Amino acid sequence: MDVLTKGLEITEKARNYNCWLFEVIKPYLGKRVLEIGSGLGTFTKMFSAKNFVIASEVDTQYLGMLKEKFKNKKNVLVTKMDAQKISQLKAMKNKNIDTIVAINVLEHIKDDLGALENFYSVLPPGGKIILFVPAFPVLLGEWDRKIGHFRRYTKDDLESKIKSCGFSPVKSSYFNSLGFLSWWFNKIIKKTPADSIVVIQARIFDRYVVPLLAMIEKFLKPPVGQSLVVIGEKN
Question: Do 87 and 129 touch, CB atoms closer than 8 A?
């Protein structure tokens, strides 16, 4: 099993973490969601509780898993899609998409600005993009490169990119402040190997730390974070 898939499986089991992120982005979800890079379908399942979801993947392995997982869900359409190919996104225009979500995807796309321009072109006025990406270039290391990350972002950087495409920023905030410190120590200082995933550590963090951290960050917006949430609206 490759490192990326291992990471996705651990994330899928991080129930508190996933619920935390979902609660942050839920107020901005429309009724018809295009999810870019659905992976194992962790968030597809959450989105489809009340919305119509197009779950898309460029990876054939994940595509097969998604089709099997959601074969009996009438409000989930699974399709192969490359966010860099505008023709594939435009093929979805008749689905009346009002929200495009990309969770831990944009950093994998070499031409991220081109992908954002494609998102803008298929959304209606008032449509939203919801982006969740790894934060802070200073944290970029062997692990990122191992799983195919081209970059990490700052708020100013990503806001500037969505503005250049025509989106107005609606929300921009760092996410998981303790994760920033953990990542900095493990990957930059300690130089933990890229193929090393500490499963027990992840479980403890999700069970005991995340509930408290989610409560704190709800009221005190952190100046740093392991990740970044940016939401934009089409003018």
Answer: no
Question: Please, which residues have CB within 8 angstroms of residue 151's CB and are 6 or more apart in sequence?
Answer: 107, 112, 137, 140
Residue matched to tokens 């740093």: 224
Residues 82 and 61 sit within 8 Å (Cβ to Cβ): no
pLDDT at position 190, please?
Answer: 58
pTM: 0.93
100 exposure class (CB count in 10 Å sphere: 0-12, 13-18, 19+): buried
**In whole angstroms, what is the distance from residue 129 CA to residue 39 CA?**
18
Give the sheet arrangement for strand 76-80, strand by strand. Answer: 76-80, 52-57, 32-36, 99-103, 128-134, 227-234, 167-175
The domain that holds 207 is classified in CATH as: 3.40.50.150
Domain total of the chain: 1
Strand (E) positions, 37-138?
52-57, 76-80, 99-103, 128-134
* Structural domain for 129, as ranges: 3-234
The Cα–Cα gap between 233 and 213 comes to 28
pLDDT in tens, 92-132: 889 999 999 999 999 999 999 999 999 999 999 999 999 99
Question: What pairing do the DSSP bridges indicate for beta strands 227-234 and 167-175?
Answer: antiparallel
